[in-house]
Every structure is written in C-alpha cells, then in structure tokens.
Amino acid sequence: MLIPLNTMFSGLSVIVDRESGAQRELLAAPVPRPVLVLGNLAVALAVTALQVTVLIAAALARGIDFHATATGVLWFAAAATLFAIGMYGVAETLAARVPKAEEFIARVPAIAIVPWFLAGSLFPISALPAFLEWFARFLPLTHGLALVRYGLLGDSSGLHAIWRMGDPTAMAALSLGVVALFAVALTRVSIRAFTRSAVR
Question: Which of 70, 81, 122, 175 has the least C-beta neighbours within 10 A?
C-alpha cells in the first residue's frame, strides 16, 4: 500500500507547480521536457525507497523474520522499483489531465487503493469469483505483490495463483516482465501527457 499511495500523491507536486507558476519557469529552461518528468520520478523514487527502507527496518526491529536470501532481496528491489516507476507514471499522467488538486485526490482511492483488495493482499486471488480472478491476473499490482512476497518471504503461492506453473523462478521472471512493461509503458505515456499539457 505504501508504494502506490506514496507515488500517487507525489503527482500532487506537478499540480502545485502548475498552479504556482513554477512549472512555467521550468518549461522556459533549456531542458528537454522528458527530463522534467524523469526528475520528478527520481524524487518520488528516492522518497518511496526511504520510506520502504524505514518500514522494513522497523519490521526487523519488531522481530519479523522475512526469510529473504540475497536473490530474494534482488527480486523484491526490482519489483518494488519497477512498480513505483509505473505508479508514478500513472500519477504524472493523471496530474497532466486533472486541473485541480482536489480532483486529483478524489481519484487516488480508485487508482491506488481499490486494486489493492483485488491483487491478493488480504486473500489469494483464487478466492475471488472467476471473472474477478481473471481480471486480477492482469493487474500489475498483483504481479508486484506476488514478487514482493516471493522475494522477502520465499512464498511463491501468489505467483502460482497467477501463472499456475511449477518453477517459481520462471514465474517470478514472467511477473517481473509484466511489471517492467507496466513501468516502461506508463513512463512513456506520462512523458507524452506532460508534454501535451505543457503546450496548452
């Protein structure tokens, strides 16, 4: 929940910059517009990474055992980073299309919170009705959450619920590919949306 909410609310800075006039000054600088989006993304990633690190440190201090290997940490880091990139792309795209911060905030629950309940966070997606289970398999959050559990807990049940294969590594690679595709696609969409909104 931390990653989607934090990255979505990072999109508010785009609206604040636009309303305060700071965006106009940035657009006047001799910097390609995609760099402005990537700069905002870097800030959102840094803040999110810090918060996730603090959360994990607090969990370890409370005695939670993650059963994570070095490879598992890599799976977790890759999944969390790529999913955060994709979610920031969603936030940037929404910020480019929504004129007011209040309207942006009103849309955050539907984008960041509702999918969380369908992605296997509280119960396996196999417990969902058939049509919702089918839908959940296509959610990037489902793949990201399954990878996080696989990386930190060594639990491949979430991956198996998606792919129904026997090799956890192969399933993890497939899910990571889905999250990577989500990240690349939404980054491109967000850059295009920002560029178009900047010329309006």
Answer: 70
Torsion of CA 55, 58, 64, 65, to 10 degrees: 70
Residue 99 parent element (H or E): none
pLDDT tens profile 45-63? 999 999 999 999 999 999 8
The helix or strand, by DSSP H or E, that contains position 156, with its residue range, turns out to be: none
How many Cβ atoms from other residues are within 10 Å of residue 60's Cβ?
11
Residues 6+ apart with CB under 8 A from 140: 83, 86, 178, 179, 182
Owner of token pair 């965006």: 23
The model carries a pTM of 0.93
Phi-psi region of 68 (alpha: psi -120 to 50; beta: other; left: phi over 0): beta
DSSP secondary structure code for residue 164 in this structure? -
Q: What residue segments make up the domains of the chain, in order of their start?
A: 2-198
